[in-house]
Amino acid sequence: MSILKGLELLKAENLCSLHMPGHKGRLKFPDIMNNIGEIDITEIPGSDNLHKAQGMILAAQERAARIFGAEKTYFLINGTTGGILSMMLSQCRPKDKILVPRNCHRSVWNGLILGDLIPIYIQPKIHPKTGIGLSISPEDVEEKLREHPDIKAALITYPTFYGSCSDLKKIGELLYAKNKLLLVDEAHGAHFAFHKDLPLTALESGGDIVAQSTHKMLSSFTQSSMLHVGNSRSCSMGQLEMFLALLQSTSPSYPLMASLEFAALEAEREGYIKWDNIIEWNQSAIEEITKETSFKIVGKDLIGKHGVVDYDISRFLIDVSSTGLSGLEVDRILRKNFGIQVELSDYYHILAMTGMGTEYNDIERFTKGLIEIYNQYKGRKQEKKYFQLPLMEEKVILSPRDAIYSPEERVKFEESIGRISKEFIIPYPPGIPIILPGEEITPDIIDRVKHIKSWGGEIIGTQDNKLNTINVVVEN
């Protein structure tokens, strides 16, 4: 099947989109953007150059900075990944130490490898039943700063994929007191600036540099993001611009950049009203689902627990295990029987995301679908038992970069105890790596993988998708 045919079939399904991107397929662009081919241009007289913006792109970036509350804003045309890599590589030198959460995005691990940086890992507080990584504790950050006073920066995920927010403001204050940088992966928080009932933005919380996925919650095209500078006095701005140019295409897409400008202007003009409606619709849905089912809506109840100071109520994190169904099963039923596609599912949960393109009918359809599933399956199975999986302490032998560039061999996974991994092992749930390149494979890791496989959990990051074998560093 061709890509074009596949897209045609997906369009014909008329799916209710409760996943990224935020526009939900309901873009209302100006006429000039309705035929993308007409604006797919390059650097010609009358246009501009992303890597040396002096005209229309510069003006659009300056407007975006004002709208989002940044000192300076850069458009990104290879996603938030490009922004994360740029801020890591520009603000840290090879062999610098950087504080990173164990449950950060894969792009951060890539940044460690590309920049030859030394990670100082910090474990998130986790949900005591489901094992989801929730927040980074300021107290744990303070302890890491005492143990490693030479840390150059911290990179914090805010909010997490699941919507929980750490006390970023307090973390920032701890870092500033030690003259360290606060770098923020705010991929899922581009909408925070547009409603008082949403969490504080990373910029409001003191982020020095913030990478933000405009396409996830607002209305730009997938792959388009922004990088906001909150404090240029503390940052190496020349280095930042150099790495942005180094890591982004020399042929940046004008449709992507135009969609970023449109998303910022639309959010400024309509954002508050839009998110006011979505928050009201979501709250009504939560009340109805709670009343009609035994599904547990995870969210605002987390505030004040496990280091969570706020929660993004634009998304639904729903524990469906009371029916005996897994989140994976509910995900499939929603798609097959109700034409609803959610963002994520795991053993216990489904995660549904709203966005600038969400309409009331989407929430109503989702609510009715969940209630119907509950009524159909309640009492048929016993409630799923929660697996208590404690966090695992890593045994770092080599830096990720040194491991990646070491000679490798493939061995049976069950016979790899004591070897140094060249691969990532990331189970879902909860999306927290149990091993990274350069770390020693222990008996506990073997047992954890067996346990996760036994109940159908997914493991990513390895060349062998079934993880019967693994690449390890050749022993001397």
List strands and helices in order, with pairings.
Elements (H helix, E strand, L loop, with lengths): L2 H11 L2 E3 L17 H4 L16 H13 L3 E5 L2 H13 L5 E5 L4 H10 L2 E5 L2 E2 L6 E3 L2 H10 L3 E7 L6 E2 L2 H10 L3 E5 L23 E4 L1 H4 L7 E5 L7 H11 L6 H39 L3 E3 L11 E2 L3 E5 L7 H12 L1 E3 L1 E2 L3 E5 L6 H18 L22 H5 L3 E5 L13 E3 L14 H12 L3 E3 L8 E5 L3
Parallel strand pairs: 1-15, 3-4, 3-7, 7-9, 9-10
Antiparallel strand pairs: 2-11, 5-6, 8-13, 10-11, 12-14, 14-17, 16-17, 18-21, 19-20
Structure summary:
It is built from 14 helices and 21 strands.
Characterize the structure shown.
With 476 residues, the chain is α/β, with parallel strands linked by helices. It folds into 3 domains: 47-264, 3-Layer(aba) Sandwich (Aspartate Aminotransferase, domain 2); 271-377, Alpha-Beta Complex (Aspartate Aminotransferase, domain 1), CATH 3.90.1150.150; 400-473, Molybdopterin biosynthesis moea protein, domain 2 (Alpha-Beta Complex), CATH 3.90.105. The protein is 36% helix and 17% strand. It is built from 14 helices and 21 strands. It has helices at residues 3-13, 36-39, 56-68, 79-91, 106-115, 138-147, 168-177, 214-217, 237-247, 254-292, 327-338, 360-377, 400-404, 443-454; strands spanning 16-18, 72-76, 97-101, 118-122, 125-126, 133-135, 151-157, 164-165, 181-185, 209-212, 225-229, 296-298, 310-311, 315-319, 340-342, 344-345, 349-353, 408-412, 426-428, 458-460, 469-473. The strands form 7 sheets. It has a 7-stranded mixed sheet with strand order 2-11-10-9-7-3-4, sandwiched between helices. A 4-stranded antiparallel sheet has the order 12-14-17-16. Strands 1-15 form a two-stranded parallel ribbon. A hairpin with a 3-residue loop joins strand 16 and strand 17 (349-353). Helix 3 (56-68) packs parallel to helix 10 (254-292) and helix 4 packs across helix 9 (237-247). The longest helix is centred in the middle third of the chain and has 39 residues, at 254-292. The protein is globular.
